[in-house]
Amino acid sequence: MKENTMDDSLLDTLAKEDEDDNDYITLCSENGQDIEFIEIAGITYKNNFYAVLQPVEPLDGMGEDEALVFKIVKGNDGNDSFQIELDEDIIDIVFDEYQKLVKEANDSENDSDDE
Q: DSSP of the chain, one letter per residue?
């Protein structure tokens, strides 16, 4: 499982999102433990949808500024399921796309402040 560290501007965005929306996603680990996550972003890549999720409570081996990438898969029952992404290339691409979105949002916010 690969985690990616987010820079300070991403952490600021996380803080704003957490204040605005306290909806948590609860996933069950392999050992049956429920883990709550905050959805940081949704990214589409090669016709697949990925969710960048940060645990509400720090997980063993993860820092406060780290998040995980999950692939959203439609199950046979029609419900979405979250599958941890293990392909490091896809994880890097998803985080790169997320960082671009945050930069664009910050640039847009700064442009609005200048007016």
A: ---EE--HHHHHHHHHHHHH---EEEEE-TTS-EEEEEEEEEEEETTEEEEEEEESSPPTT--TTEEEEEEEEE-TTS-EEEEE---HHHHHHHHHHHHHHHHHHHHHHHHHHH-
For the segment 91-110, the average pLDDT, to the nearest whole number, is: 89
Strand partners, 66: 5
Cβ–Cβ < 8 Å for 13, 44? no
The C-alpha atoms of residue 94 and residue 70 are separated, in whole angstroms, by: 10
Rounded to 5°, angle at Cα 12 from 40 and 41: 15
The rounded radius of gyration (Å) of the Cα atoms in the chain is 15
pLDDT for residue 37 is more than 90: yes
As separate numbers, helices (DSSP H) first and strands (DSSP E) second, the chain gives 2, 6
How many angstroms separate the CA atoms of 54 and 47, rounded?
A: 23
